[in-house]
Structure formats: structure tokens, C-alpha cells
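fyi for ur records
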Amino acid sequence: MKSLYLSFCILIMASSCKTDSKTDSKTTSKNDSIALIERAKAIHDRVITLDTHCDINVKNFTDSINYTQNLESQVNLPKMKAGGLDVAWFIVYTGQDTLTDEGYKKAYENAMSKFNAIHKLVEDIAPNQIELALNSDDVRRISKTGKKVAMIGIENGYPVGTDISNVEKFYNLGARYMSLSHNGHSQLCDSNTGEEDDIWLHNGLSDLGKEVIKEMNRLGIMIDVSHPSKESMRQMIELSKAPIIASHSSARALCDHSRNLDDEQLEWMKENGGVIQTVAFQAYTNTEKNDARNKAIKDIRKEIATSLNTKWYEWSEMKTLTDDEKEAFYEVRSKIVTLADEKASQMSDFPPKVNVADFVDHIDYMVEKIGLKHVGISSDFDGGGGVEGWSDASETFNVTLELVKRGYTEDEIEMLWSGNLLRVLDEVEAIAKKS
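which gave:
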């Protein structure tokens, strides 16, 4: 009987230990998760977070509607503060039009309206909250004051027209990088979009484009290869005395899109000493997931657009619109997407969104392929960018959290967020001073 009682006690103790072990394991796991999040938050607070590509709409830069308010835009001051995004490169974007004097004039006026909007924000609307930086010293100085930092990039050199003196005008207004084309061949170089029909205008750079590259080197403007064709990029690297950047592109090996860089281009970037700013744009991050979700949600978006007395356009259809039509659509696009996502979230087994983990997969790939010093981060917010988990500037911390989860150190995260890009900016500036 005693023996039976002892056996029973041992069984109870073993069972009790097993339960305690499970509880301890869950508690340890929870504590580890909390510790990881706290560590990530501390890192996120200490490093300078910099996003090289945030599009703007001049209608959000007025006295009554502006970035001091939490607008529907993916980037504004409240969202930057909430997510800990320190530096936003605001983009002077002009869509491609005819290569005529009329087209150049219209493009120049459009570009100037965006330069003026950015200057209005930092000089008139919110000078106590955000300041324009022209170099890396400015970035660090402004960040120490607690203000947010604005920088300026030009997406498409089309507004230069045929007057190369415009490059210096844009530099004097604060532009510190410029791509020579967008969706369509410009007067300066061929675009990646030529891959669709294999029709090229210049077979790389035009003669004027070559002169613009030299002028950018002379002034200290970073050359952006995110939209130009592969041959254009090759010729730019060959001609440039300074390292280049891809302001918002990812790895083509993981997502076969002409906007991404293939392994050969990545090697060129490494040899050149440049940096690829990995972009959180769903279609350039994971084609399969993005296509599956878009196919499933397309009708929902169309239905919601109709209810808002407008029309839904896929990205492939956007090139048929005028600049004014595009801006009008951008104003309602985010609302349509949000409402469609809310409806889809209530449906079972709906295809998932491309997310932060998919995005950081590209960072991992390029870091392993060409080294950490050649990789950075961008969103393309308010220009179609955003993934689940980093859908606007208020969720910026989630990128840092994912990097910490994957074992990146604070120094490495600092390089990815801003160090690498600012290094290239410094080198481009130093070469300009020697000219």
C-alpha cells in the first residue's frame, strides 16, 4: 500500500513539474518577446531613420490643409512622430509627356510647384517642427534638435527640358538626387519600361543626358537609377565620377520586375560604392502574393470607387491618365484601398497582403549578395508604396523590429536606415568640391 501511495505521489509531482515547465516556458517566451520589443524601441529611438522616397501632393501644402495635420496621406508630421521616422525625402515628381518645348514647360512648372510646396512647409507652415537639410551634417544637427528633417529628390529629369542650367536651379532649391527618367523614355535617357516592347529611344543615355550626369557630379547631386533602363544605368556608372543610388528599388532575383535590380546590377552597385534603397512597394516585393490579392480584391475596389463617384485604376492603367487625372485619383486612392481592405478582412481565407517580412527578405538578400554597406530603406509612400506592417509613416518602428528579430545589430540597423545613404551623399559632395 505504501509502495502504491509513493508511486501515486511521484506521478503527481511529475505531472506538477510538467505543468510548471509549460508555464515557465510560456512566461519565458513572453518575457523574451517583451525584451526584444523594448530593445528594438531603444534602437529605433537612437538611430536616424531615413526614407528616401515619399511622394507629395501640393494640395496638402496649403495654409488650411497641410502636413501638421494627420491627413489621409501616408506621410505627414503626426505620422512621422508616431512612427519615429526622422527624415523624409519629399519627391519632386513629374510624369513623362511629349518631348516638346510645350511638354518641357509644363513639366518645369509642375516641378517648381512641388519645390515651392516643400519650401512652404519648412519655412512658413511648420518651421518649428521640420527643417530642410542639404547635407548629412544638416541631417544630424536637425535631428538633435528634435525636429523632423525634410530632404528633396527629383523623380524624372524631364523638367530639365533642354536647358542644362535647370540642373543647378534645382540644386539651389535643395535637390540632392535626381533620376533621369520615369515611366517612359525622357530626353535624357531610356526608362526601364522599354523592356515591355523592346523599343528604345537612346540605347541608354542621350548626349544631353551625358552632359546632365557630368553636371550632377559637378554640383553634388546623387544620380538615381531606380527608373532608368539597365543600359542607362551601365552608362551612368561608366560616366559618373561619384557613387550612385537606387532611391526605391529591390532585388529582381526575389521579384522579377523591371523596376528591381538583377544580380549583375547589384554587383555594379557594389563596385561603384553606391546604395540600393530597398522599397516597400508590394508589386516590387512579392509578385505572387501581390497578384493573388489584387485579383481577389479588384472587384471590391471597383465597387467602392463607384460608390465614391470615381473609377478604380490599376497601376498598369495609370499611364493613360494625365497628371491632373492622376493627382485626382491619388486623392481618393488611399480611401478606396482602406475601405476595400476592411471589407476583405471580414472575409475568410482571403489572400494575404505583402508584409514587412517579405520586404525585409529583400534587405537580407542584398546584404548577403553585395554587403551591408550598399543597402538602405525606402517606402514610396503616397506613390503606391506600403506593405502590411509598414503601411504609412506611423508604422515605421515595425521595420526596425523585424530587423532586430533577424539578428541585425544596432550599428547595422543604423547603416541600413541612414548611414549608407548619407555616406554616399558625403562622397558625392566631396567629389563635387574637387571639380
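The beta strands are 50-55, 87-93, 130-132, 148-155, 175-179, 222-224, 245-246, 275-279, 375-378. thats all i got for now
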